[in-house]
């Protein structure tokens, strides 16, 4: 099958959960003997670097890129008030992207997969001109992210603006869902939150992984816990503030070091006497080799947290909130330790500090779980079933 995969950001290099999910799908399709051409959107935050793309991808298909300027501005946000479109998607609705997409879509593809919501903003319009099956590979329910933002702010103007954007985004998201021939969502636990009328075209397709290509843990002199995430995603930013203000002072009194790392940070997350902040790290190894436990105090958002997979690949036990572990099918006490407030995070970290066997058991159980549920064979079986249902 000849497939065009349209990505909302360049999948290479692997810089966050979104890029990992994109390249995971590309690899799954190619290893399943499909030819994949790839069209990506690059922006100021996510530049296109052709040299980062692997040879196995370039040799079997073509790679295209559209460079767009999508940086949000206050003036743009204000102007958007007089529009009916959401500011989130309208920044990507540009003539160049439409032109390139429509040109590539005429190349007699058997299937076009739009990887992420903003990649699919022209799906309804394209559907009217091209007789090709079209799938939305859904990462999150995007309108829920903005809806949660509105609930968390006290400023009435901001609250109203976030609610406006959430309502507009929900309408656009539903239109894309309706026009797509199928929706492949990353998180099985969120399938029930989709409208009933979409159920016939809704399917589960997780990321495809190989956790046994792992890094052996490195023993640290001082027991250290840490969090890694791109801070331009609001749930990660909230987790960073929670660690800085509420958690690190408590852990510090128990001789537990706290480390944080991630892109797109501002001064509000600067290191202090209670924790250290590496900022953006060139390689994940630079972060994970310095910690003994991965903490994940994420309390909002949608989709899945790829950082959970990263922690297991580096064989680090996990202490997480319920929201932070969604979508992976993990059980507390068997695969991870559950915490919902600073006191609980402290107690669970102390358990791992004082019980090395518990850490080893959690990691081993996670490795077995991820390989059986999200390895190539099980994921390929889901892909084949989804394609069978589509055609």
Cα-atom radius of gyration: 21 Å
Calculate the terminal CA-CA distance, rounded to whole Å: 11 Å
The CATH topology of the largest domain is what?
A: Rossmann fold
| Contiguous uncertain segments of 5+ residues | none
Oligomer: single chain
What is the H/E order?
A: EHEHEHHHEHEHHEEEHEEHEHEEHHH
Helix content: 40-55%
Number of helices: 14
The gross shape turns out to be globular
Neighbour order of strands in the largest sheet = 3-2-1-4-5-6-7
Please characterize this protein's 3D structure:
The chain contains 14 helices and 13 strands. With 391 residues, it is α/β, with parallel strands linked by helices. It has two domains: 2-208 and 376-390, Glycogen Phosphorylase B (Rossmann fold); 224-373, Rossmann fold (3-Layer(aba) Sandwich). The strands form two sheets. It has a seven-stranded parallel beta sheet, sandwiched between helices. A six-stranded parallel beta sheet has the order 10-9-8-11-12-13, sandwiched between helices. Helix 1 (17-31) links the parallel strand 1 (2-7) and strand 2 (35-42). The chain starts with a strand and ends with a helix.
What characteristics describe this protein?
single chain, Rossmann fold, 13 strands, seven-stranded parallel beta sheet, six-stranded parallel beta sheet, about 400 residues, globular, alpha/beta
Topology:
Blueprint: E1 2-7, H1 17-31, E2 35-42, H2 55-60, E3 63-67, H3 74-79, H4 87-90, H5 95-105, E4 111-115, H6 123-127, E5 133-138, H7 142-152, H8 156-179, E6 182-185, E7 202-204, E8 224-228, H9 234-252, E9 257-261, E10 276-277, H10 284-288, E11 293-296, H11 306-313, E12 318-320, E13 337-338, H12 342-354, H13 356-374, H14 376-390
Parallel strand pairs: 1-2, 1-4, 2-3, 4-5, 5-6, 6-7, 8-9, 8-11, 9-10, 11-12, 12-13
Helix pairs in contact: 7-8, 9-12, 12-13, 13-14
């Amino acid at each position: 099958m000849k497939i065009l995969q349209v990505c909302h950001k360049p999948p290479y290099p692997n810089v966050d959960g979104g890029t990992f999910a994109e390249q995971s799908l590309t690899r799954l399709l190619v290893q399943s003997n499909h030819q994949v051409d790839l069209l990506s959107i690059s922006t100021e935050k996510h530049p296109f670097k052709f040299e980062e793309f692997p040879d196995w991808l370039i040799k079997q298909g073509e790679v295209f890129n559209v460079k767009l300027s999508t940086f949000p501005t206050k003036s743009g946000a204000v102007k958007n008030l007089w529009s009916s479109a959401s500011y989130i998607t309208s920044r990507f609705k540009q003539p160049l992207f439409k032109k390139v997409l429509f040109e590539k879509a005429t190349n007699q593809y058997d299937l076009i997969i739009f990887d992420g919501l903003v990649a699919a903003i022209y799906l309804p319009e394209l559907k009217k001109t091209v007789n090709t099956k079209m799938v939305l590979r859904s990462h999150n329910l995007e309108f829920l992210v903005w809806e949660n933002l509105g609930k968390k702010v006290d400023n009435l103007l901001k609250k109203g603006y976030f609610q406006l954007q959430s309502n507009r985004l929900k309408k656009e998201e539903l239109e894309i869902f309706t026009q797509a021939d199928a929706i492949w969502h990353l998180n099985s636990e969120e399938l029930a939150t989709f409208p009933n009328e979409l159920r016939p075209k809704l399917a589960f397709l997780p990321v495809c992984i190989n956790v046994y290509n792992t890094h052996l843990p490195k023993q640290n002199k001082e027991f250290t816990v840490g969090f890694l995430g791109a801070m331009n995603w609001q749930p990660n930013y909230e987790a960073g503030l929670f660690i800085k203000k509420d958690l690190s002072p408590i852990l510090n009194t128990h001789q537990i070091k706290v480390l944080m790392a991630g892109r797109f940070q501002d001064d509000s997350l600067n290191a202090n006497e209670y924790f250290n902040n590496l900022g953006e790290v060139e390689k994940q190894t630079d972060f994970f080799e310095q910690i003994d436990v991965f903490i994940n105090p994420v309390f909002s958002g949608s989709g899945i947290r790829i950082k959970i997979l990263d922690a297991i690949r580096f064989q680090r036990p996990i202490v997480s909130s319920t929201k932070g572990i969604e979508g992976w099918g993990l059980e507390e006490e068997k695969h991870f330790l559950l915490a919902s407030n600073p006191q609980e995070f402290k107690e669970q970290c102390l358990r791992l500090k004082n019980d090395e066997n518990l850490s080893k058991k959690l990691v081993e159980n996670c490795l077995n779980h991820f390989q059986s549920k999200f390895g190539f064979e099980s994921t390929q079986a889901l892909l084949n079933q989804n394609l069978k249902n589509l055609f």
